[in-house]
Amino acid sequence: MSSQSDVRFTDFKSDKQPTWCPGCGDFGTMNGMMKALANTGNDPDNTFLVAGIGCSGKIGTYMHAYALHGVHGRALPVATGVKMARPDIEVMAAGGDGDGYSIGAGHFVHAVRRNVDMTYVVMDNRIYGLTKGQASPTSRSDFETSTTPEGPQQPPVNPLALALASGATFIAQSFASDALRHAEIIEEAIEHDGFGFVNVFSPCVTFNDVDTYDYFRDSLVDLKEDSHDRHDLEAAKDVILDSDKEYQGVMYQNENSVPYHEQHGVTENMAEIPDGAPENAMDLVREFY
Amino acid sequence: MTEDLNWAIGGEAGDGIDSTGKIFAQALSRAGRHVFTSKDFASRIRGGYTAYKIRTSTDRVQSVVDRLDILVALTQRTIDENLDELHEGSAVIYDGERSWEAEIPDEITAVDVPLKTLAEEAGGAIMLNVVALGAACELTGFDVEYLDESLEKRFGGKGSKIVENNREAARKGRDYVRENYDLELGYDLETTDNDYVLLNGDEAIGMGALAAGCRFYAGYPITPATNVMEYLTGRIEHYGGHVVQAEDELSAINMALGAARAGARSMTATSGPGIDLMAETFGLVATSETPLVIVDVMRSGPSTGMPTKQEQGDLNMTLYGGHGEIPRFVVAPTTIAECFWKTVEAFNYAEKYQTPVYVVADLALAVTEQTFAPETFDMDAVEVDRGKLLEDEDVETWLDEQGRFRAHAATDDGVSPRAIPGMTDGAHMSTGLEHDELGRRTEDTDVRVEQVDKRNRKVETARAEEDWDYREFGNENADNLVISWGSNEGALVEALEYLEDDGVDVRVVSVPYIFPRPDLTDDVTDAENVIVVECNATGQFADVIEHDTLTRVDRINKYTGVRFKADELADAIAAKISAEAPAQ
Ligand SMILES: Cc1ncc(C[n+]2csc(CCOP(=O)(O)OP(=O)(O)O)c2C)c(N)n1
Ligand code: SF4
């Protein structure tokens, strides 16, 4: 395994050219992820990236690491399995708002409450990109799409609040085009011991003309460390439940977070097994006397 | 008189029927007697009729029969439900003091024991079942001392006082019968020096998984597969493994997939409804070429069906389920011991061929307990074959000119080298999308065909390399061939004895492999009568046999929710054969 100094973020790049629309927020999201991985001393051979389905999910193809591009909505359980089997491996999961908060919403709640040690990056463009522009769980209630001509007529999911209610130990939000801040936040999520959740505003330039780069640039409020105490749950609630503003930064971090595998005493690399039944395996049989 | 004894205890769910039955079964097993148990349970926790039945003999027993010799009845329903299995030599133990007037036919011996009062004397009414066990011991000439160890096993965790009280309760039951009855039922249970182990199919599957090096299990509770998870929980940790109770089956199979891709031997178990939910990911497991063992313990379907009842209705789902065309292996244990061995095999197939492997068991195997000599599970004979899992230094050999790992290299045998996280230069992408050798998405027609063929080639390789055997019973030269899969084997083997007595000559073939499976063409075409026996309505295995052999076969199907009984099967087979006999 390489040490921090000789890994460059481009080592995490595959030679496959992204087919994302020019200008898609996912480029910035991905660059930040690669930088953060390199900055935290990881390399492709000790990193596992699980991707969902959607434009966002294609990230698994464009990054170089051990990777699985799974089925729609199920990235988190796969990532959980990887981490439990291999506590020695850096695990990252990525997908879109539809992938994560619609079909995969159940898994989101449970991965959060398990506090599996991984980083989960959601590229939130408030639309279904890959299926060409339907409403997503984070779409505004009046956002007109091909399947919701009058808008969804229901309030959007607040993913940060969902995470908070599920007992999250790390909740953050970033903006794909604010490159430095975004990479820095992902880096913090990687370094967090437990489930590091980052909702990333990653604009879809093709199907969403409301939640655009300009919109986020104009409205984003950065939570600076001197004005926001991330360890203060009440302060976290205030920003997370504030529906009038869009925030960037780490909203909440639990200092006492113990990741799932540690809670359960899982320390071993489960890939290593004996070449026959384990020693004393006959004891398993004798139990049935 | 008879060496074969059929005993049962029945009452309301929640009456402790199961644990009482288990205590007796373990005692019989410890006394060197063979035991075969079966359970009648309704899908509710409290209320509802439940019975635990034991058939015991000094010979091996492997099926249920239509006969009950000693019945412990805690309710009238217990007597009513079992009326036609009781006979002249039967005895019913009941508690006449417990505000019910038991209606028992005259020819059956009624043994009224104040179970509750005696239990209270021994320390608590809760032990009334154990008093009944003591009474049953006396009626069958079985020494109550054999109960002591089982009581210790069952109640030891609750303190020695509780164990003592229970032992006392058993003796009170025995003494009461001894002092108040002078019966000549003729039972005198012989004991031997053999020490057998007593376990059910779910436990055997779990034990097989541990023996094979399974380290990760994710599952979602469902009858009758939950026992697999319960068995592994608390044991797998000793080997550095872990069990996750997932939020649903979609999650369970995906977690198991993740652990498998990370290099662990990994498994999930469920029953029909869960298999349906797993179907989408099943395709991903196959196309990403991930070794994974998926256990389906079948219950009655479709939909939620009859969750606590027997059926073999999922064959088509496991054989054909999932969209597109998916290479897979399907193994189906035919006995409880095979639940162990087939699970071990399943892990080896999964890694050797990098495919999903279904282990398909049925409820009758899963919940039935049976005695075996401990050597049946000879751990020294367990082999672990990890297939083409690379050593760190060999990864290099599989890189392309640009240094990229060829995870899906289209090899001659269809199996590619496997690198797992942590291996230098092995990093690669895998996906459910059609992909090239490097795992990268493609819609190139040639590559598509190459990869589909490559994956399917594994099946051809396995067909040639492995023994897709079957087991055989009866007269190998008989004109009458009976084919079976799953748990029917035990009843069929016993049915052979009845058939022999009636002069009906039969050859039984019991097939533990659904896919790939043995080629039975010659066997089928050579036989005069071919009958496929299975617990489903449409004859799913019979269809497969017809497809393979291009020959029509006869079918015996049972889909009441209850497993076959030996005598019933013998009658059904004899009837089919005589109906087939050409008119003279
Ligand atoms: C089971 C299943 N249902 C539906 C789809 C089709 N599908 C593919 S991507 C997608 C939505 C993706 O939206 P989002 O997660 O927001 O990602 P984006 O494309 O916007 O990045 C859907 C519905 C699928 N692949 N699988
Ligand atoms: S459709 Fe939208 S989300 Fe998809 S690649 Fe294009 S811009 Fe990005």
Strand order of the largest sheet of chain A: 2-1-3-4-6-5-8-7
- Proportion of strand residues of chain B: 15-25%
Structural class of chain B: alpha/beta
Question: Major sheet of chain A, described briefly?
Answer: 8 strands, mixed
Widest sheet: strand ordering of chain B: 9-8-10-11-13-12-19
Given as residue ranges, the uncertain stretches of chain B (5+ residues, pLDDT < 50) are none
Number of strand elements of chain A: 8
Broad shape of chain A: globular
Q: Determine the N-to-C terminus distance of chain B.
A: 43 Å
Rounded Rg of chain B: 26 Å
Classify the beta-strand content of chain A into a percent band: 15-25%
What is the compact description of this entry?
By secondary structure, chain A is an alpha/beta fold. Chain A has helices at 25-39, 59-62, 75-85, 97-103, 105-114, 159-165, 179-191, 213-219, 233-240, 260-263, 282-286; strands at residues 47-51, 66-69, 90-96, 118-124, 170-175, 195-201, 220-222, 246-253. Chain B starts with a strand and ends with a helix.
